[in-house]
From TrEMBL:
InterPro entries attached to this UniProt entry: SNase_OB-fold_sf, Staphylococal_nuclease_OB-fold
Keywords, comma-separated and alphabetical: Endonuclease, Hydrolase, Nuclease
Protein's name in the database: Endonuclease YncB(Thermonuclease family)
Domain TNase-like: 34-123
Organism taxonomic ancestry: Bacteria, Pseudomonadati, Pseudomonadota, Alphaproteobacteria, Hyphomicrobiales
């Protein structure tokens, strides 16, 4: 079953409906947990939300960015644990240079990444970078 699931995550093109119970990742083994506002693990597969960039937690430029990143992480946890199923769809590239699967995450046809952007907890890929330390775009 796990092999079939991993194969589906690796090639998700059709938006198969998924459901999981997520926790926050800690320093232990990461199976199904949220790392930050744009990265999570699902059944042992590391996934990067393909359509957004969230504030940094591990190497923030300032305390404001770290706090924004923590808020994005908690909100992503809430969104992924909502009662409804979600889907993962591969974008133009299958994975990033760090080996994370690049996927658009959606529920009922609406991108969870876009929801984070609307809530000012991330930015769309290709849009101007946000200076989380001063709130300015550049």
């Amino acid at each position: 079953m796990l092999v079939l699931f991993c194969a589906m995550i690796g090639t998700a093109q059709t938006g198969d409906q998924l459901r999981a119970s997520f926790t926050l990742c800690d320093t232990g083994r990461r199976t199904t947990c949220v790392v930050d506002g744009d990265t999570f693990w699902l059944e042992g597969v590391k996934i990067r939300i393909a359509d957004i960039d969230a504030p940094e937690i591990s190497q923030p430029a300032c305390e404001e960015e770290r706090l924004a990143g923590e808020a994005a992480k908690l909100r992503l946890l809430q969104l992924l644990n909502a009662a409804a199923e979600f889907s993962l769809v591969a974008g133009v590239r299958d994975e990033d240079p760090y080996g994370r699967k690049l996927r658009i995450v959606s529920r009922a046809g609406k991108s969870l990444g876009e929801q984070l952007v609307r809530e000012k907890l991330g930015r769309r890929w290709g849009s101007p970078r946000i200076d989380w330390c001063g709130g300015d775009m550049h």
